[in-house]
Amino acid sequence: MTDEWKAPAKASAETGDEKSWKLLEKTLLAGVQEQRRSRRWGIFFKSLTFLYLFGLLILLSPMMSIEKGAALGSGYTALIDITGMIADKEPASADNIVGSLRAAFEDKKVKGVILRINSPGGSPVQSGYVYDEIRRLRGLHPDTKVYAVISDLGASGAYYIASAADQIYADKASLVGSIGVTAAGYGFVGTMEKLGVERRTYTSGEHKSFLDPFQPQKPAEIQFWQSVLDTTHQQFINSVKQGRGDRLKDKEHPELFSGLIWSGEQALSLGLIDGLGSASSVARDVIGEKELVDFTVEESPFDRFSKKLGASVAEHLAMWMGFQGPALR
User: Fold this and answer.
1) What is the average pLDDT across 228-245?
2) How many CB atoms lie within 10 A of CB 284?
3) Whole-angstrom Cα distance, residue 289 to residue 283?
4) C-alpha angle 241-243-248 in degrees, rounded to nearest 5
5) Which of 140, 221, 231 is nearest to 185 (CA)?
6) Cβ of 151: how many Cβ atoms within 10 Å?
7) How many CA atoms lie within 13 A of 201 on its CB side?
8) Whether the predicted model's global pTM rises above the 0.85 cut
9) Are residues 326 and 183 in contact, defined by beta-carbon separation less than 8 angstroms?
10) CA distance linking residue 294 with residue 214, whole number of Å
11) Phi, psi of 210, deg, nearest 5
């Protein structure tokens, strides 16, 4: 009888130990889960705080620039950067540059405006918008001079814009000019034939698909497209001549409008620029106000992301496949 009672008692003890361990295990797991949950919420709130402060900084940055300008006293030089490709939805778009120009000209303390340029060019339309606005503002504010200062590169559409300024400066090693127009694409006709793929295009209009890279080119369409480029090129030339006037040495050097590009030292002798200098030296020695206040419109990262998100895939495919319009490059 004694042995029979001992066996169940031992089994009962083991069952109690197992229950204790399971309870302890559950308690530990619950603690770990709670720690993970707290860590996740901590990361969430830290990220939220960072985004809030980042957004607040972006919103306050224009105000900080204004306050900085206001603290400089009686006068200063406005600085506007034109950097990268000149195109719609890019930092160097006409909307951004024109907005900066208007803000600078409306500021009574601005004694002169410097366009600091480092760009290979881009859209003739965007460049033309900026060119026309510079000339309009110069007419409204004749006492406020505009100076274009080319750093590394001021080519094509960038030079188009610069030619609207009162004077142009560059470094002796800057690259200046490239007064020409280009439109490039690809042709896949031979590839299609080798692959045995047939292109089927349905259009309303005899020449509607003349830029289709999957179809053979026609001599008449090539001639037409060349006339479009020649017309755009002549518009470019006329604007540069209007802006630079007699300073250009184009009669002695007709290659000025051939699309070639020169160093700043060569550009000076050709009349493409008026002198050698930097933004700071022009502000100090030409304008007479060494203090620079940046009027460049800077889009927030959220705006840039929204614009890129809104751009259609079809638009990018069209550009890659050769359907983009003329470019000043």
Assistant:
1) 94
2) 16
3) 5
4) 50
5) 221
6) 18
7) 15
8) no
9) yes
10) 47
11) -70, -15
Alpha carbon distance 219, 226 (integer Å): 11
CA–CA dist 243, 273 (Å, integer): 11
The answer for residues whose C-beta is within 8 angstroms of residue 326's C-beta and 6 or more apart is 124, 181, 182, 183, 228, 229, 232
Cβ-contact 116, 146 below 8 angstroms:
no
Nearest residue to 175 (alpha-carbon basis) of 84, 262, 285, 61: 262
The pLDDT tens digits for 119-164 are 999 999 999 999 999 999 999 999 999 999 999 999 999 999 999 9
Give pLDDT tens digits for 210-226.
888 888 888 988 898 89
- Name the token pair of 44: 């969430």
Domain spans, the chain: 1-71, 74-320
Minimum mean pLDDT range among 59-73, 87-101, 283-297: 59-73
| Cβ partners under 8 Å of residue 113, min gap 6 | 77, 78, 80, 101, 104, 105, 144, 145, 146, 147, 295
Burial class (CB in 10 A: 0-12, 13-18, 19+), 324: middle
Cβ distance 159 to 179 under 8 Å? Answer: yes
Report CA torsion sign: 212, 216, 217, 221: negative
Which residue is it, tokens 């896949």? Answer: 188
* Orientation of helix 2-70 relative to helix 301-310, angle to 10°: 100
| Closest residue by Cα to residue 247 from 270, 215, 223 | 270
Pairwise CA distance, residues 164 & 313, whole Å: 35
- How far is 196 from 198, CA to CA, in rounded Å? 7
Give CATH superfamily name and number for 74-320. 2-enoyl-CoA Hydratase; Chain A, domain 1 (3.90.226.10)
Residue-wise pLDDT tens digits, 30-76: 766 777 777 776 776 666 776 666 565 555 555 444 444 544 568 99
Q: Which pair of structure tokens corresponds to residue 85? A: 């490709």
Residue found under tokens 């050097």: 253
- Paired tokens of 11: 């089994």
Residue whose structure tokens are 């109690």: 16
Residue that has been written with the tokens 């940046």 in this structure? 294
